């Protein structure tokens, strides 16, 4: 895997939107200068999606943010990576995560157990697969100290989601200088505080029901008052960069100054699954 740098796009629309429009959007994002296109996963045809996005682009890295390890086997994952890189080039980065008990236990109560051990076992499976997936080709969704340590020793680095520049600094310290730190940053291109925070709460509220995120936010200094009623203004402003293009560029730069190798933005807007107008508007300040 070549170096991962620049600014990327994290987009559910590239995964779940209209296939033809998503492919067209991916090609445009590459032309705009975004270096990595990240897609989420809650099971299903994620490798087919990666293949379509790789076919639609020429140089952009396509990354899973994240591959849900409970919903795919290690052998299937390693085989898909080998097949796609053989046909489309070495630009598929496998981001892997343990997801959340609320999601995994919904279909099979009690399945979500010992997530750190589950991650280690999945990585063992990638290493021992008929076509192994090398540690340099994978990153882990990591927030807390133990998963960050696993990211350092068993992967190329970490892809922290729903974090602040302060967390990026902690991740860099934990991973050391040789590992990748690839945070996601939610953004809202508006100078209206009410609109920005409404968009932010609509995005953040879901995550405030998930202990993996709230535990991490507590480690960063947020308290019960910040984590209730959709999130305090302080919390929303910390997790969602809003303002004009320069304000959003400033937040992305803060992540870089804290040690990020690459930052992927997730645009919040009323434009729909593929907010192409905002992607275009931000490209001049984020991809140069």
Q: Whole-Å distance between the termini?
A: 22 Å
Mean pLDDT: 95
Outline the low-pLDDT stretches. Answer: none
Helix/strand/pairing category: alpha/beta
In total, how many beta strands? 11
Helix content: 40-55%
Label the overall shape. globular
List the main descriptive attributes of the protein structure presented here.
288 residues; alpha/beta; nine-stranded parallel beta sheet; two-stranded parallel ribbon; 13 helices; globular
Describe this structure in words.
The protein is α/β, with parallel strands linked by helices. It contains 13 helices and eleven strands. Strands 1, 2, 3, 4, 5, 6, 9, 10 and 11 form a nine-stranded parallel sheet that branches. Strand 2 (36-39), helix 3 (46-56) and strand 3 form a beta-alpha-beta unit.
Topology:
Layout: E1 7-10, H1 13-16, H2 19-32, E2 36-39, H3 46-56, E3 61-64, E4 67-68, H4 74-88, E5 92-97, H5 101-107, H6 115-128, E6 138-140, H7 145-154, E7 157-158, H8 165-175, E8 180-181, E9 184-189, H9 193-204, H10 211-219, H11 233-239, E10 240-243, H12 245-258, E11 263-267, H13 276-286
Parallel strand pairs: 1-2, 1-11, 2-3, 3-5, 4-5, 5-6, 7-8, 9-10, 9-11
In short:
This protein has 288 residues and is α/β, with parallel strands linked by helices. It is built from 13 helices and eleven strands.
């Amino acid at each position: 895997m070549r170096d991962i740098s620049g600014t990327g796009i994290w987009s559910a629309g590239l995964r779940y939107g209209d296939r033809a429009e998503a492919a067209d959007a991916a090609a445009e994002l590459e032309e705009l200068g975004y270096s990595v296109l990240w897609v989420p996963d809650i099971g299903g045809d994620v490798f087919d999606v990666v293949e379509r996005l790789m076919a639609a682009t020429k140089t952009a890295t396509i990354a899973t943010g994240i591959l849900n390890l409970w919903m795919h086997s290690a052998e299937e994952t390693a085989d898909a990576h080998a097949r796609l890189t053989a046909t489309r080039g070495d630009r598929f980065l496998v981001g892997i995560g343990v997801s959340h008990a609320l999601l995994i236990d919904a279909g099979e109560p009690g399945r979500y157990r010992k997530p750190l051990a589950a991650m280690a076992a999945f990585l063992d499976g990638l290493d021992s697969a008929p076509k192994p997936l090398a540690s340099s080709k994978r990153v882990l969704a990591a927030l807390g100290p133990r998963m960050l340590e696993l990211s350092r020793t068993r992967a190329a680095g970490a892809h922290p989601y729903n974090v602040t520049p302060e967390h990026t600094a902690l991740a860099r310290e934990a991973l050391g200088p040789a590992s990748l730190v690839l945070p996601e940053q939610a953004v809202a291109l508006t100078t209206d505080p009410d609109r920005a925070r409404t968009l932010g709460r609509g995005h953040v509220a879901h995550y405030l029901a998930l202990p993996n995120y709230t535990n991490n936010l507590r480690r960063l200094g947020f308290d019960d008052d910040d984590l209730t009623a959709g999130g305090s203004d302080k919390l929303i402003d910390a997790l969602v960069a809003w303002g004009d293009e320069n304000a959003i560029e400033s937040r992305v730069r803060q992540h870089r100054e804290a040690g990020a190798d690459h930052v992927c933005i997730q645009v919040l807007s009323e434009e729909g699954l593929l907010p192409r107008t905002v992607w275009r508007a931000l490209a001049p300040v984020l991809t140069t």
